[in-house]
Specification:
Strand content: 25-35%
Number of strands: 40
Oligomer: single chain
Structural class: mainly beta
Helix content: 10-25%
Radius of gyration: 37 Å
Distance between the termini: 66 Å
Largest sheet: 6 strands, mixed
Shape: elongated
Length: 753
């Protein structure tokens, strides 16, 4: 949708605003990209509703919809604990504004009077709670928190110092609290977040009329604005410069208006901005209308098949004692319901139904908290949406029924009473197992773990767009091994990247289909797993285990100048890494030949190679190229240099290889005379190694290798005393090779503990 695609630019208006809804939406979309497809489905339903409405003349439907409201007051200080009267004043404002009964309708300019509309939507404070008990429609929760955040949404959770929502498919939940960040209020668009956070939040200083309400936002229009968002209205400027609010009878305008401009106020080529619209940012006293187009958008989500249609069957505005009636549709992922009698007995001749069908549900489990029916009265549970579906159970009497679980994502509960007598009734609750798509980006910092597409025993969902960034913080690479794999061939992919960026430059492998992928090892200790699926066929999905490779592996060029030694790919007991490109230049001083022998050899055949050159560069003659599991022959150079090059591709890795070499080269050992002049101590070394070189010719370049031939340190030593820090070095034996300024080479061994 055009509007949804423009959301990326919305933050240009975020510096000064009365509403946090768009910023909250952008944050949620970063966490859950599937919100986009859900909101597009809401827009498609709205489009079809508009097409059907176009065939009906006139703007009135003669069908006033009443929405039950529960107001959760979450307060720390007495001033934040607003009165019931102030709450009622806000309900009065909503009814005035949505029914166009507001006293300031006379302030609507004649240019817009023809499109100003009665939305035929009204609001009541709930008189019945979710369990059928009487209620004022107001809850009060004292908290220790000084303020709440629009990003954390913490006011909506009792566990975070706020208050849990009442079933959001049966009530409009409005939270009143102190908000941080200068935000007056925010709302959740239809389909833009979880059911547990659906509703509206208003700062107590901008709620209702009188009391704690502060000018210029003291006329209750902040709630009118946010409830407009909750019913799918956009800001009138479309959250972009001269943007689109998806309403045909509001003029295009450049951006939000503040205070109360003088009419006319033209922008973007219009005659005037509709700055008195409730979906602008002007002062409360400046606002006075919704339009016909806005009315139709709001009523679309309340129509049959609309996102908020279940509110029409809510009993929230029906006083207790009347019992249940008709069919209630429950779409939240979990909830509680009852026979509706509250603390009274249920009625005779009841026939009530609860159709439980949460979005993306795989199964539903129903449990009873209390149960007291007379003989002849019963609760029947069906494994489907109608009474012709298989029965999961029929219950009567006073024994608490067992929990029952549906085989799919729909369950129908029916309560029937006869005319012979009544009893206390029942209270039941349900939970659902959801087939939720993976979403957003998850950062994993553990050294090892398991990742799956998130679908469990079901197929994954369409339009997945999920990333897992593995950042253990240390190591030589990450080994990734799939345990199962089934995606739509050629359309749904799992792609592995070196690092945290999704960029083809860093792509290691991409997999699709039903073949179990080979083991992949990244070349750095950071990897991204990226899963995407298209909009059609899905499959069982995939799972993988990852581990961090702690052992160092080869990299760059290692110079080996000792007359003999050993070296390897560096992987130790693990497999070597993908995309290796490592070199060992063997150049013992005075050597006229070098002989190389392999003691073990296992590489991916025909893909990962060890190549040996008769000289110091890859331009030298090739002595041999080896791959697979056959031990290469012994090789001898024709001169005093030999280059060994190891390369691996980006797929399968193996155990690797080890080699030794000999030569007729010499090293300048420390003579007795030199020993008196060149000293290194202490040995074994713990934190530092002191090296004293003779004056004035003793200086030179010192290179230190471990026994695997890997360079541990290299630097310039001056004549006299030198201190080498070895505190961070691994324990073991090291070889120092000193190339002195006069050309002599001195080698020595020392131990680091």
């Amino acid at each position: 949708m055009k509007y949804l695609l423009c959301l990326a630019g919305a933050l240009i208006w975020a510096q000064t605003h009365r509403c946090g809804t768009i910023e909250r939406l952008q944050y949620l979309m970063q966490q859950d990209p599937s919100i986009l497809s859900r909101m597009q489905a809401v827009e498609e339903h709205t489009r079809q509703y508009m097409q059907n409405l176009a065939r009906m003349p006139g703007q009135r439907t003669n069908n006033v919809i009443t929405i039950p409201v529960v107001v959760h007051i979450v307060y720390r200080t007495a001033s934040e604990n607003i009165t019931d009267a102030q709450v009622q004043s806000q309900i009065d404002v909503l009814n005035e504004d949505f029914r166009r009964l507001n006293a300031d309708t006379t302030n609507t300019p004649s240019l817009f009077a023809g499109v100003a509309a009665d939305a035929e939507i009204q609001f009541c404070l709930a008189t019945r709670d979710p369990l059928g008990n009487p209620t004022t429609g107001i809850t009060r929760t004292q908290t220790t928190k000084t303020s709440f955040s629009a990003y954390a949404d913490d006011v909506k959770f009792s566990s975070q110092g706020g208050k849990d929502a009442w079933p959001t498919d049966q009530y409009l939940n409005i939270w009143v609290c102190r908000l941080s960040g200068g935000v007056l209020g925010y709302a959740q668009f239809p389909g833009s977040g979880p059911a547990s956070t659906d509703g509206v939040v208003i700062d107590f200083r901008y709620f209702g009329r009188g009391g704690s309400a502060q000018a210029p936002y003291d006329q209750g229009r902040t709630a009118t604005h946010e409830v407009g968002h909750w019913l799918n209205l956009r800001h009138i400027w479309g959250d972009a410069q001269c943007g689109d609010d998806l309403v045909n009878d509001t003029p295009t305008q450049e951006g939000p208006n503040y205070s109360c401009p003088t009419f006319p106020h033209p922008t973007c080529g219009n005659t005037s901005d509709m700055f008195m619209n409730y979906m602008d940012y002007t002062d409360d006293a400046c606002m006075n209308l919704f339009t016909v187009g806005q009315k139709n958008r709001m009523r679309a989500v309340l129509s049959l098949g609309g996102y908020r249609y279940s509110l029409l069957s809510s009993l929230g505005c029906s006083p207790p004692g009347g019992g249940c009636s008709g069919t209630q549709t429950l779409t939240a992922s979990s909830g509680t319901f009852s026979d509706g009698s509250g603390t009274s007995n249920y009625q005779n001749n009841a026939d009530c139904r609860w159709l439980i069908q949460p979005s993306n549900a795989l199964s539903i489990t129903l449990s009873f908290q209390s149960f007291q029916l007379l003989s002849g009265d019963s609760v029947i549970v069906y494994d489907g949406s109608t009474t012709s579906a298989p029965r999961l159970g029929a219950f009567s009497g006073s024994s608490l029924p067992p929990s029952v679980t549906s085989s799919g994502g729909v369950m129908l509960v029916r309560f029937i009473s006869n005319g012979s007598g009544v009893a206390d009734g029942f209270v039941a609750s349900y939970t659902s197992q959801l087939n939720l798509p993976c979403y957003g980006t998850q950062v994993l910092t553990q050294a090892s773990g398991t990742i799956t597409d998130g679908s469990g025993t079901s197929d994954y969902q369409d339009n997945a767009d999920c990333k897992w960034v593995i950042q253990p913080g240390s190591g030589a690479g990450i080994r990734i091994e799939f345990t199962q794999f089934a995606t739509e061939q050629g359309y749904d992919f799992v792609t592995i990247y070196d690092g945290s960026l999704v960029n083809s430059t860093y792509m290691v492998r991409r997999f699709s289909g039903t073949n179990l992928p080979s083991v992949v090892t990244t070349s750095i200790p950071e990897a991204t797993i990226y899963f995407t699926s298209d909009q059609s066929i899905t499959a069982a999905g995939w799972g993988l285990n990852y581990t961090t490779i702690a052992q160092p592996y080869c990299q760059g060029t290692v110079q080996l100048t000792a007359p003999s030694g050993s070296f390897s790919d560096g992987s130790g007991n693990s497999d070597y890494t993908n995309r290796a490109d490592c070199r060992w230049l063997i150049q013992p001083p005075g050597a006229t030949w070098v002989r190389l022998s392999f003691t073990s050899f296992t590489t991916e055949a025909n893909y990962d190679f060890v190549r040996v050159y008769d000289g110091p560069t890859t331009s030298s003659p090739l002595l041999g190229s080896y791959s697979g599991t056959t031990l290469p022959p012994t090789l001898t150079s024709t001169g005093g240099s030999m280059l060994v090059v190891f390369t691996s591709d980006s797929s399968i890795t193996r155990a690797g290889w080890e080699a030794t070499y000999t030569s007729n080269g010499t090293s300048t050992a420390l003579s007795a005379e030199s020993a008196a002049e060149v000293r290194f101590y202490p040995t074994p070394a713990h934190e530092v190694l002191h090296i004293e070189l003779p004056q004035p010719q003793g200086g030179g370049i010192l290179t230190v290798y471990d026994l695997q031939g890997r360079k541990a340190w290299e630097g310039l030593l001056q004549p006299g005393n030198n201190t080498l820090s070895v505190v961070s070095w691994a324990s073991g034996v090291y070889i120092g090779v000193l190339q002195q300024s006069q050309g002599a080479v001195v080698s020595f061994r020392f131990v680091k503990e």
